[in-house]
Design goal:
Length: 282
């Protein structure tokens, strides 16, 4: 018997004002709930997209008592949905923040939190150079939580998608859905976004939900958009074809996870082996 679950992804173009970002996302969350979605997911940097490190750090505090997080919790409660707040900055120390994803239940309670483990420190050339670790403190703990319909949800963020071992660990812990809220750059998004997400779905035998930031942002950053849902066999269930703010709604059949994993159990891991020595020559 099928285990159906309707989900929705909100594609955004977040700026530096948290209240304005919430106001822009709210109609999409309400539309998703009205369409019957039980799980609604927003992108990385939902509450703030700001490359000014000092301004970003000044604008955020601890998770407890944060008025914006209270407003997002009220939005989940008002619409009776599980709401994955793709990520929001939370104070880590005097100079850095955690890039934190939160799962809020239909009662407005935060039932899981995940701090991004793999930070985007890359040199793409020209103006496309990033040092996320200058602003963000890395997390260290992988997270799987029970969501709607008892579905097990593994939580990741953006650059994590390049690290297959994290996804295998989530699958091994029972994740049937893996969330990948993201703010992919345009060059890496065009080259790798869909390929990486489909690969992670195939490797884990899990649904992958990837809500994205898209377009030219207030702080000057450009992101790829193209939010996408991939099934456990690697097929695209639904996708947005541009970088404009929008909504993606689709139906999942959680039994397909069982079917995919039974056919190809590679998600359980291969045989142990001895890695080659670094710098070995013939």
């Amino acid at each position: 018997m099928a285990r159906p679950l309707r989900v929705a992804l909100v594609q955004m173009r977040s700026g530096v004002d948290a209240a304005a970002n919430r106001a822009a996302a709210t109609p999409f969350v309400r539309e998703a709930a009205a369409a019957g979605a039980r799980l609604v997911c927003t992108p990385e940097n939902t509450t703030r997209m700001d490359r000014d490190r000092a301004r970003l750090r000044r604008s955020v505090g601890a998770e407890a008592g944060d008025p914006e997080l209270k407003a997002w919790a009220a939005l989940a409660r008002e619409n009776g949905v599980f709401l994955l707040l793709g990520s929001t900055p939370i104070a880590a120390d005097e100079t850095r923040v955690f890039n934190r994803s939160l799962l809020i239940d239909p009662n407005g309670r935060t039932v899981a939190r995940y701090d991004k483990i793999n930070l985007f420190d890359v040199t793409l050339g020209g103006s496309e150079n990033y040092r996320e670790s200058d602003t963000v403190a890395a997390g260290a703990e992988a997270v799987v939580v029970e969501g709607p319909m008892g579905a097990k949800i593994g939580m990741t963020i953006c650059y994590d998608v390049r690290f297959a071992e994290l996804y295998r660990a989530l699958a091994g812990a029972g994740a049937e859905i893996i969330t990948v809220p993201a703010a992919f750059t345009r060059p890496t998004g065009e080259a790798h976004w869909e390929i990486l997400l489909r690969a992670r779905a195939i490797e884990t035998g899990a649904y992958v939900l990837a809500p994205a930031q898209g377009g030219k942002h207030e702080d000057g950053r450009g992101t790829w958009g193209h939010s996408i849902i991939v099934d456990p066999w690697g097929a695209v269930v639904a996708a947005l074809e541009d970088d404009e703010p929008g909504l993606l709604v689709a139906d999942l059949d959680l039994d397909r996870v069982i079917e995919a994993r039974a056919k190809i159990p590679a998600w359980q891991g291969g045989r142990p082996f001895t890695p080659p020595a670094a710098g070995a020559r013939a």
